[in-house]
Input
Amino acid sequence: MTAPSASPESVGMSSARLSRLEDHLKRNYIDTGRFPGTQTLIYRRGKIVHSAVQGFADVERKVAVKDDTLFRIYSMTKPITSVAFMMLVEEGRVAIDEPVHKYIPEWKNLAVFMGGMPSLGSKPPPVPQFITRPVARPMQIVDLLRHTSGLTYGFQNRSMVDGAYRHMKIGEVEKSGTMQSMIEGLSKLPLEFSPGEAWNYSVSTDVLGYLVQVISGQPFEQFLKERIFDPLGMTDTGFHVPSAKADRFAACYSADGKGGKVLQDDPKTSSYLEAPSFISGGGGLVSTAADYLTFCRALIHNGEIGGVRLLSPKTLQLMTSNHLPGGKYLPDLSRSLFAEAAYNGIGFGLGFSVTIDPALTLIPGSKGEYSWGGAATTSFWVDPAEELIAIFMTQVLPSGAYPVRRELRTLVYSAITESLC
Output
């Protein structure tokens, strides 16, 4: 569903100030070799007021970034999966305070990590052994939505449990395995902490994708296609890149730690060119800026766009409230070495980070703004108070290599000349 365009001035923004955005990206990131290329979309008061591409989608082949370039959005998949799950909640098929083991019976007796037990012999066992204790309470579905489940990611590199995820290849988006094998593997490992005691970025949303499949009775990818992508016209969003669209697929790079980048995933040989066996609700989607804007437009317009309603306004209010135990902020409760948001004043809702106190973030913004990002430095935020959506695309791992997200917020908000709040 294409959004109409308008001049920034017609919606209370400055075109001259918005031009600083592209100047900044070119001067500090593209010309310096940090980023291959970028795409930005700014939407306000129902109109696209800024749309720009620059640099290369594929540096080696000199393929420019275009409006229809396909990007790995990694964890920007999570809000889509969370919305899909809440659609089932609205149908009365599941409730977020239910125990997860109602739908995954083998998880009924999950335990919490206390320590490791050394293996005998030189060959490590297929399933690492741990000393554990019982959980204080069962894992609830809300714990998956807000990342207080006690699950983790192997790339955290923080604990022995993280190491076990790596050893068993659990939740690795571009690797072998299936959703079912992930669930079975997790049933054999302890949690990092008892559910609800802390926040840890994890495979929780991958588990949500599995639950969508179990509860809906159809493959997760089919549910997304039939209930979200097709109705909204998100024709370029999916879990792999079809051969007919392969020429639009961007290369992915890794920051080299010296201010440059190295090729991480060649678009001509990428695993994304084939349908994956593991359908990752936490990080598996490929999309375009235009498609993701369509998804965000449905959210900012109270769950409905073009006659297609995903969620009710009240469900979105619930999702974009702070659900962290005790009303705490993300940095206060986090045990994670990695997250897509780490500012003070930020809470976490049901699938998004949420700004609770803009002053504590030390960057411009609004109370109630919600957002997330992807591992390759893609990001988005939705600001209902200012009727604003911002989407940024590039392909550089990891997302925390540079402070571009903070800079983008400052540059975009400084272009507002008429505030609505």
Remarks:
- Residues 28 and 168 are 40 Å apart (CA to CA).
- The mean pLDDT is 94.
- Residues 8-83+219-413 form a domain with the Beta-lactamase fold (CATH 3.40.710.10).
